[in-house]
Amino acid sequence: MELPVGSRKEVMSYLEPFMVNEMADYLKPVEEMWQPADFLPDASKETFFDEVRDLQGNAKELSYDLMAVLVGDTITEEALPTYESWLTMVNDVSRSEQGGWMKWVRAWTAEENRHGDLLNKYLYLTGRINMRAMEASTQYLIQDGFDIGTGYDPYRNFIYTSFQELATNVSHRRVAMLAKNSGDKQLSKMCGVIAADEARHAKAYKAFISKAFEVDANEVMLAFEDMMRKKIVMPAHFLREMGTNIGQTFGHFTDAAQRLGVYTALDYVDILKDLLADWKIDSVQDLDGAGEKAREYLLALPNRLARIAERIKVPQMEYKFSWIIG
Ligand SMILES: [Fe+2]
Ligand SMILES: [Fe+2]
Predict the structure, then answer these.
(1) 34 in catalytic set
(2) Three state DSSP letters for 148-192
(3) How many Å lie between the centroid of ligand 1 and the Cα of residue 270?
(4) How far is the CA of 165 from the centre of ligand 2 (A)?
(5) pLDDT digits (tens, 9 = 90+) for 294-308
(6) Does the structure show a pLDDT above 90 at 59?
């Protein structure tokens, strides 16, 4: 096989047909897809108020931290305009509307859009949320954007999205479990189907990077090293509430997530291990000196991070979020 090594542009045009042809493996047709309405009380039915009463009864049992995590997750999902516009700015891809890249971005966005929609409607119905405060945080986050250190590099972007989709899969899955333990089967189902979407998306981005490794190993390895040296920041790292500074609420949100075990420093390590194994980092060929050094750094990283993670102390004190009533 003639390898299109040379530039990012050549690699990306080599990957483009793969995106179009194999997209169906990672994204589902609308006709087969769940929609938020499948999981929410139907306001056109007489049973609506009874269903809302049930929903509120179950939601009452959810812990304060869990409510905080749900709101933070919802705001993160609802900042989708930031992620979509960032993906369309990636360099070295064809911006033809019918090309593989643009088709992928639109279809991915269309799937993701359901996540915030479902969670937002659910939270509204619980009666436990100060919706105005939450909506203000969402507006702030979209306005503030993010700074994730990928630049416009397609490799760094796909490494970031591979990591991030795995992280959201873990956190939605854990919230589903906690909701179930608290007796809220409906919320558990909602978070479960969202988590399943995230898992498919993770597979897609991981596959893009695997393909890129086949043809441009050294450059992908260096990009991976660079992203891990900078650390993968969460997309909502600028999260704030009305009356606070940019990013000031984010730490409180992640503290709640750590207290619950929804997403912890050890999950970060596990995701890194997953990526190292998936991309077969230990056996990648065709590396130069810098590439070998990058590999060495990456392979040693999980143990280093695990030792640091063990020492992390999560504050026990609960912060009072403006989003939650009571
Ligand atoms: Fe999502
Ligand atoms: Fe996602």
Answers:
(1) yes
(2) CCCCCCHHHHHHHHHHHHHHHHHHHHHHHHHHHHCCCHHHHHHHH
(3) 20
(4) 5
(5) 999 999 999 999 999
(6) yes
